[in-house]
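Support request, please re-run this one:
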Amino acid sequence: MKIVIAGGHGQVALRLTRILAGRGDSVVGIVRDPGHVDDIERAGGEGAVLDLEQATVDEVAAVLAGADAAVFSAGSGSNATPERRDRMDRAAVVLVMDAAEQAGVRRFLHVSSINVGSADDSGIGDGYATYLRAKRAAEEHIFARDELDWTVLRPGVLTDDDGDGTVELTAGDRVGPKGARFDRVAREDVAAVLAALLDRPGTAGRIYVVVGGETPIAKAIDG
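Re-run finished. Output below.
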């Protein structure tokens, strides 16, 4: 397969690139900073320099041409302003979906957040709440796209622990969970789940929450 990853220099994205390239897939990572291309190439992929906050649908569609799937794994960063959170965590998702439709790429995976429905919970900081609202808005756009075979993955709190290939994977709904959760999950395991979802077209139209657990990834998805 040829997979295009928006946010190709992210820590989950680079791990996903290594997994996909290691099994023989072609991977293109979209990055804003030309200095990040070398890291993508070291992971086995190819870099495409494009600022998703400024790019046009035509520019993104050109990168997606010939791809079998797109993965949105970009993010605004922990210290982003509310305006940038909206541009990256919502508007850029819409941009990539529009470009995927234009390029004829139906399969679309989106990395969201376990707490996407909890922005108004007490104890949620303003910055995190703004991030969650943007993520939630992005999901609402995704759910409206009948032209795309989308899957939404909502990971828990990401860690750099070694992945062990086992997780707890549960079905989500379009409302999103109520009550903030801070279960942890290794980025390596999130990347492995994304790779497994790409292999399973039958997971289109589904929402999953993933945290650390004891179930092998393939069994967690297929069980």
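The longest strand covers residues 149-155. Helices lie at 11-22, 37-42, 57-64, 82-103, 126-143, 187-198, 217-222.
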